[in-house]
Amino acid sequence: MKDASDAILRPEQAVYLDQLLPARDHIAAELEHDAALHDVPIVDPEVARFLEVTARACGARRVLEIGTATGYSGLHLARGMAPDGELVTIDVDAGRQATARRVFQGAGLGERVTLMHGPALSVLPTVRGPFDLLFLDAVKTEYQAYLDLALPLLRVGGVVIADNVLRAGKVASEERSELLDALRDFNRYAMSHPQLMALILPLGDGLLYAVKLAGADQ
């Protein structure tokens, strides 16, 4: 998570919005503490809440997550799904996935989560759809490749969410790097994709939010 000084909004706005968030339960709070202590990249609390709200709003029964980390975002996605739903989550870090497995089991969600270990670009071709929601939060320079592989697995009307697409606003600056250039390319690609209706939200570190359209060429 970032602190207020890294927010896209002005610091006082970020602090105000953070204060409006309900207190997290002990499972989510422990994950936030562990992430801060061990520098684990997890979504911001407002993004986690957005994921749960979105999963509930679209009636998600199957969710595909690329980037498990220690299970913070997956916890919220799984809580927002239908009671008989399934979260399929991919990560290359076995240690973090082991933590996530314990988190899901401790939250009573273990039977609803399928953890797949390995590089997402290698694992995705083995995954079977359809899914109702796709969440991208792994290697940022691979976002476009993730989307290309996962979009065919998403049902028409399904939702795509990608985290960190504004990179603390740096994508709008003159700063150049492989990471920033990849995010700029991904944002343009997703926003103009013929199968998506998309927009970018200044939430957390920037979220791309899109819906898969019917009738577009596959």
Q: Concise description?
A:
The protein has 218 residues and is of the alpha/beta class. Helices cover 39% and strands 20% of the residues.
Keywords:
single chain; 218 residues; alpha/beta; Rossmann fold; seven-stranded mixed sheet; 8 helices; 39% helix; globular
CATH class: Alpha Beta
Distance between the termini: 36 Å
The overall pLDDT, averaged over residues, is 93
Count of distinct strands: 7
Q: If you consult CATH, what is the topology?
A: Rossmann fold
**What structural class results from the helix and strand content?**
alpha/beta
Q: Percent range for helical residues?
A: 25-40%
The CATH homologous superfamily is named Vaccinia Virus protein VP39
Query: Number of folding domains?
Result: 1
Which runs of at least 5 residues are low in confidence (pLDDT < 50)? none
Strand order of the biggest β-sheet? 3-2-1-4-5-7-6
What would you report as the Rg, rounded to the nearest angstrom?
16 Å
User: Total number of helical segments?
Assistant: 8
